[in-house]
Design a protein that fits this description.
This protein is mainly β. It contains one helix and eleven strands; from the N terminus they run βββαββββββββ. The strands form two sheets. Strands 2, 4, 5, 6, 9, 10 and 11 form a seven-stranded mixed beta sheet that branches. Strands 1-3-8-7 form a four-stranded antiparallel beta sheet.
Length: 125
């Protein structure tokens, strides 16, 4: 059974940093695509970042500030978030897809097979 839990969220001031982690079961971690999405209150779930075979993709509004990575030995997915802005406030979710898919589809939440429980990130002074 898949085990998938995001952690590392919290309250941070604008300009600060947070690192999110997502510990996965081994089955999930052998996924072809893994990513992070976020959902702000009253809004749809939006793409943040994804990684597949060492290649990465980022949403335009986080490019240069966020970095996605994975540690296969620890079965963990990470999201390093720097220069945080109030508009980054949201619940962040990790997700995975069993098989690889074309790069153009990485940002579509509907292609993901597994979703973890979210972690809340609040950016406020």
């Amino acid at each position: 059974r898949c085990s998938w839990q995001a952690s590392g969220g919290g309250l941070v001031q604008p300009g600060g940093s947070l690192k999110l982690s997502c510990a996965a079961s081994e089955r999930t971690f052998s996924a072809g695509l893994m990513g992070w999405f976020r959902q702000a209150p009253g809004k749809e779930r939006d793409f943040v970042a994804a990684i597949s075979l060492g290649n990465t993709r980022y949403a335009d509004d986080v490019k240069g500030r966020f970095a996605i990575s994975r540690d296969n030995a620890k079965n963990t997915l990470y999201l390093q978030m720097n220069s945080l802005k109030p508009e980054d406030t949201a619940v962040y979710y990790c997700a995975a897809r069993k098989v690889r898919i074309v790069y153009s589809s990485w940002s579509d939440p509907n292609v993901m097979d597994y979703w973890g429980k979210g972690t809340l990130v609040t950016v406020s002074s």
